[in-house]
């Protein structure tokens, strides 16, 4: 499996390109703000053709480039049904001050709702671009936050540790932390439940590719992440 990740220009949101190998169809996960140039370069360098865009949730910094990517390649965006409303206007949940700052920098016409939106639900098993995915609904950061899990790990990220699967965790789980729950649609109680019922049951040898920051593993987070340790003791 080929996985190429790079941070967006704003908020450092990780965008991932996932494919069985170079020269194949691929998935684009969480294309955020200012990623189009780098994404195009990655696709050209590796001969990749997007078959779908996946959104771990509907926050602006994870979906800002969804529409131009979908339009350029004639593909749909897939997002959990509870977060589809955010694609109408992702900036609406920023709050007036943050929204004003954002519009001052990027303009008021920077967002256009995607034409083709496919709703996801918990437990779905998908095969897109030759890649098998499981959809794990893990609300708390937003109502429709999901983790996409796939069998296998890119050799470039395994480093001989014997990892067996990969989780694209969005803003549910970070190295040493979790996503914030104080934004509109967030819930601390839902997040703790997601950690307990969705994250902790995952195998220790799962590579975690989060929405922000460096990669980690479930085993490492189980042992050191204070939020997971707290839930594990319940």
From TrEMBL:
Sequence ranges assigned to domain Metallo-beta-lactamase in this UniProt record: 12-212
InterPro entries, per database record: MBL_Glyoxalase_II, Metallo-B-lactamas, RibonucZ/Hydroxyglut_hydro
UniProt keywords, alphabetically: Hydrolase, Metal-binding, Zinc
Alphabetized PANTHER family for the sequence: HYDROXYACYLGLUTATHIONE HYDROLASE GLOC
SUPFAM superfamilies noted in UniProt: Metallo-hydrolase/oxidoreductase
Keyword Hydrolase belongs to the record: yes
Protein name: MBL fold metallo-hydrolase
A Pfam family this chain is assigned to: Lactamase_B
């Amino acid at each position: 499996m080929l996985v190429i990740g790079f941070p967006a220009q704003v908020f450092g949101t990780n965008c991932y390109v996932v494919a069985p190998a170079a020269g194949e169809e691929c998935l684009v996960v969480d294309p955020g703000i200012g990623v189009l140039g780098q994404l195009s370069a990655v696709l050209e360098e590796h001969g990749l053709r997007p078959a779908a865009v996946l959104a771990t949730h509907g926050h602006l910094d994870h979906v800002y480039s969804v529409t131009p990517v979908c339009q350029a390649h004639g593909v749909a965006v897939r997002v959990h049904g509870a977060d589809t409303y955010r694609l109408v206007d992702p900036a609406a949940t920023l709050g007036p001050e943050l929204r004003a700052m954002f519009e001052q920098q990027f303009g008021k016409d920077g967002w256009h709702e995607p034409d083709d939106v496919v709703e996801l639900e918990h437990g779905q098993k998908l095969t897109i671009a030759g890649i098998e995915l499981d959809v794990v609904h893990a609300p708390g950061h937003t109502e429709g936050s999901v983790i996409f899990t796939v069998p296998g790990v890119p050799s470039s990220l395994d480093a001989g540790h014997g990892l067996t699967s990969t989780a694209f965790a969005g803003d549910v789980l970070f190295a040493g932390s979790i996503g914030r729950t104080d934004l509109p649609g967030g819930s601390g109680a839902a997040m703790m439940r997601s950690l307990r019922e969705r994250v902790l049951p995952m195998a220790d040898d799962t590579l975690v590719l989060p929405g922000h920051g460096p990669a980690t593993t479930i085993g490492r987070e189980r042992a050191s992440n204070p939020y997971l340790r707290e839930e594990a003791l319940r």
